[in-house]
UniProtKB/TrEMBL annotation:
The keyword Magnesium does not apply. Residues 1-20 form the signal peptide. GO terms for biological process: cell adhesion; metal ion transport. Residues 125-148 have a biased composition (Basic and acidic residues). InterPro entries: AdhesinB, Bact_metal-bind_prot9, Lipoprotein_PsaA-like, ZnuA-like. This is ABC transporter substrate-binding protein. One of its GO terms (molecular function) is metal ion binding. It comes from the Bacteria.
Length: 317
């Protein structure tokens, strides 16, 4: 089935590429015809990192529209064309299948951040994390997968920014030093954010983090929390009655005060569980996208809002 989809996509994209070639004299410095690099990114955290590292020298577009759930991304032929024409395509392999397919049109310009992100935590589709178990240790469980949400750990996000600086420097070596400095500046801000989280979450009433889906594993691991998710990596997965019962029992047994709903996904399941367990509901943002309803309009602002929420929800002093 996947091969059929890719053949169909290629048939749709090939005429668009031909038209684009006819309309260009080959003298443009970037795919978009301007002086700035044209970089296509697959979802918001990568777009934001490219913008911060590339500065005014880069035009970063996002394949995932604002308000859309990135796990379920579908690409139009125009989207695939933008991938094919970009100076660089920054993505996370195996997170968005449609992007993985479109990368076949990228002609050597694709840059996968997986290695820099250090995806070493396992999350499961049964709604339960396996503690601090690594992805390698978890490989024997056929219901699990690597947690892709690296950007919720500022240290991993800084490493990805460094890798992006290297990619931009490869494409545009004349400004490599500038990209490297921008990445260093971003790391400084991320180090400060990390310090704020460590200080804010060092003394909390509970370390149990009950979330709608398994998006907060790296955040939990970085700051001494234990994630207990209602569903697994896919937020739209409907939890079974037994899974919901298990979470309610966990909340009661560990005296957990808060169930965290999320942006971009319905809150009804979290609200049902919280009501049954006599807990409150608060909203954490996995920063998979930014909308007008987001607590802030960029990564740092949303992370700071998340910290404030966690300090209240975990009863930290």
């Amino acid at each position: 089935m996947r091969m059929v989809v890719m053949k169909r996509t290629a048939l749709l994209v090939a005429p668009l590429l031909a038209l684009a070639a006819c309309g260009s004299d080959g003298s443009d410095d970037a795919a978009g015809g301007g002086d700035r690099l044209e970089v296509v990114t697959s979802f918001y955290p990568l777009q934001y990192a490219v913008q911060q590292v590339g500065g005014d020298r880069v035009e970063a577009t996002n394949l995932t529209r604002p308000g859309a759930e990135p796990h379920d991304l579908e690409l139009s032929p125009k989207d695939v064309l933008s991938v094919a024409q970009a100076d660089s395509v920054v993505y996370l392999a195996d997170f968005q299948p449609a992007v993985d397919d479109a990368i076949t049109e990228a002609d050597g310009t694709a840059f996968d951040v997986t290695k820099a992100a250090r995806l070493d935590l396992a999350a499961t589709d049964d709604g339960h994390d396996h503690g601090g178990e690594s992805a390698e240790e978890h490989a024997g469980h056929d219901h699990g997968s690597q947690d892709p949400h690296f950007w919720l750990d500022p240290e991993r996000y800084a490493d990805v920014a460094d890798a992006i600086a290297g990619e931009l420097g490869r494409v545009d070596p004349d400004h490599a030093a500038e990209y490297e400095q921008n990445a260093k500046d971003m790391r400084t801000r991320l180090d400060s954010l990390d310090a704020s989280f460590r200080e804010g979450l060092k003394d909390c009433q509970t370390t149990d983090l009950v979330t709608s889906h398994a998006a907060f594993g790296y955040l939990a691991d970085a700051y001494g929390l234990t994630q207990e998710s209602i569903t697994g990596l896919t937020p739209e997965t409907e939890p079974s009655a037994q899974a919901m019962k298990d979470v309610v029992e966990h909340i009661r047994e560990h005296d957990v005060p808060t169930v965290y709903a999320e942006t971009l996904v319905p809150k009804d399941v979290a609200e049902t569980i919280a009501k049954e367990a006599d807990a409150q509901v608060m909203v954490l943002d996995p920063i998979e996208g930014v909308t007008d309803e987001s607590s802030a309009q960029d990564y740092f602002g949303i992370m700071e809002a998340n910290l404030t929420t966690l300090e209240k929800g975990q009863s930290c002093s």
